Amino acid sequence: MSFKSFKIGKYTIEKPIIQGGMGVGVSWDQLAGTVSLEGGLGVISAVGTGVYNNREFAHKVVKNRPLDDINFYSKDALKKIFENAREICADRPLACNILYAQSGYDRVVGDACEAGADMIITGAGLPLSMPEATKDYPEVALIPIVSTAKALRILCRRWKKTHNRLPDAVIVEGPLSGGHQGFKYNDCFKPENQLEVILPPVIEEAKNWGDIPVIAAGGIWNHDDIQKMLDFGAVAVQMGTRFIGTIECDAHENFKKVIINSREDNIKLFKSPVGYPARGVETNLQKTIEEGTAPKVACISNCVTPCERGKEAKVVGYCIADRLSDAYDGLEDTGLFFTGSNGYRLNEIITVKELIDKLMNGE
Question: pTM for the complete prediction?
Answer without folding.
Answer: 0.97
